Amino acid sequence: MTKLNKLSNTKIQAKANNQTQDDVVYCHIFDAILEQRLPPSTKLNEESLSEIFGVSRTIIRRSLLRLSLEQVVDIKPNRGATVSAPTIEEATQILKAREIAELAVTELATDNCNPQQMQVLRNLVTSENEAIANGDVGKGIRLSGEFHIELAKMAKNAPLLHFLRSLVSQTSLLIAQYEGSNNSNCSQDEHTNLLNAIESGDKVKALDLMGHHLMHIRANLNLNDDATSSDLHVVFSNVIRSRA
Q: Which of 14, 36, 132, 239 has its CA 20 to 30 A from that of 29?
């Protein structure tokens, strides 16, 4: 079941900051993925998106291609585009890549910390906490992703920012697909503590806090092969063992 109907139904206009229509469509779809309004395996029909956004299918196609390069959309010949649905093996690889990227970002962000960007980050944490308190989990997830992207901006490393942006969106897909029922929303206090360490220049503590934060994200995902499989023999392995 798709949730494209939650996107804007009016013709989009390029924003005043020189964004093209391609950029605006891309941002809308990207945000919808981060907010989990577009869950894994959702069909992204070009004709429907063209009607929703009031733009040509060429613009839709370019936006989807851009998202596919960030590995959050799959495009297959004669089958069109769908929101990516990472396998357990792919999920493990994504989380490892994000760990490496986030630690590098944390180190560089501590070196390049400035009051203006710190305030932006703290405002994001406040908004994230408010969203969670109001029960808007999707918005909270998107704001959490924006927090990590903004942190990467403070690191002042463009390739790392681009890489992390893709990983953040892919992680949102993992949460939508694999998150267990024991989610504790631990990121709220962890983001604040991380910012405090960065602002104080304590790089060792900041790296330790980021490591623990990523560990908690990983712990909230059910990546147990026995628990999530399309193989009936795997799903009912306990029955098979009891009959042996």
A: 132
- Which amino acid is it at 71? Q
Residue 44 has φ and ψ, to the nearest 5°, of -105, 85
Amino acid (one-letter) located at 68: S
Residues 6+ apart with CB under 8 A from 186: 213, 216
Least confident of 30-39, 55-64, 79-88: 30-39
| 100 and 214 co-located in one domain | yes
Residue range 92-146, pLDDT digits in tens: 999 999 999 999 999 999 999 999 999 999 999 999 999 988 988 778 888 898 9
Q: Which residue has the higher pLDDT, 7 or 30?
A: 30
Residues 100 and 61 in one domain: no
Output b/e per residue, 161-200; b: 16+ Cβ within 10 A: bebbbbbbbbbbbbbbbbbeeeeebebbebbeebbebbbe
Geometric angle at alpha carbon 223, from 159 and 3, rounded to 5°: 70
The stretch 211-230 carries a mean pLDDT of: 77
Which token pair is 34?
């981060």
Residues 70 and 148 in one domain: no
Question: Which CATH number characterizes residue 12's domain?
Answer: 1.10.10.10
Q: How far apart are CA 116 and CA 42, in angstroms?
A: 38
CB of 11 closer than 8 Å to CB of 56: no
Same domain membership, residue 173 and residue 100 = yes
